[in-house]
Amino acid sequence: MNKYNDDHYHNNDDHDNNHYNHTNINFHNCNNHDINHTHYYQADTTFDDGHIHSYCGYTGEAVPEEGSHVHYYNGSTTVKDGHTHEYCGKTGPARMIPGGHIHFMEGRTSFVDNHDHGYANNTSHEKCM
User: Fold this and answer.
1) Burial of 87 by CB count in 10 Å (0-12 exposed, 13-18 middle, 19+ buried)?
2) What is the DSSP track for 54-83?
3) Could you tell me how far CA 12 lies from the centroid of its own chain?
4) Which of 32, 33, 58, 123 has fewest C-beta within 10 Å?
5) Looking at the domain assignment, is residue 18 inside a domain?
6) Cβ distance 126 to 39 under 8 Å?
7) DSSP secondary structure code for residue 112 in this structure
8) Is 27 among the domain residues?
9) Are 88 and 46 in contact, with CB atoms under 8 Å apart?
């Protein structure tokens, strides 16, 4: 099975330049037991092979795990040096912060043009569905 077609992964197809300029995203506090929420994320990869890539998107809905919950995510980076990289993974468990919770996500992109990139970031507050 191709991991990018797995039902657990959320497709992030809207990676155009406008997608990086979300200034009016309305993130609400969800009830900690509300499973119907996602998280926005946006960050840059590590500097490798002379460049970085940006990436952003929304996680999939929450999946209960180990007394908390996690989210699956996947997407493609921006184009730099004539190529993109794909990434996918599972967030860490919810980490409570004032006004809600966030998740940590990290990993490595796909190997393209003889290199890959690392990424690590926190998601935004939850967005209720």
Assistant:
1) buried
2) EEEEE----EEETTEEE-EEEEEPPPBTTB
3) 9
4) 33
5) no
6) yes
7) B
8) no
9) no
- Please check whether residue 91 is in contact with residue 65, taking contact to mean a CB–CB distance below 8 angstroms: no
Three-state DSSP at 97 gives strand
Query: Is residue 30 situated within a structural domain?
Result: no
Say which amino acid occupies 100.
Answer: G
pLDDT of 18-28, one tens digit each? Answer: 333 322 223 33
Query: What is the domain extent for residue 78?
Result: 3-13+37-128
SS3 106: strand
Report if residue 107 sits inside a domain.
yes
Provide the 8-state DSSP code for 5.
G
Transcribe 30-54 into DSSP letters: PPTT---EEEEEEEE---BTTB--E
Q: How many structural domains compose the chain?
A: 1
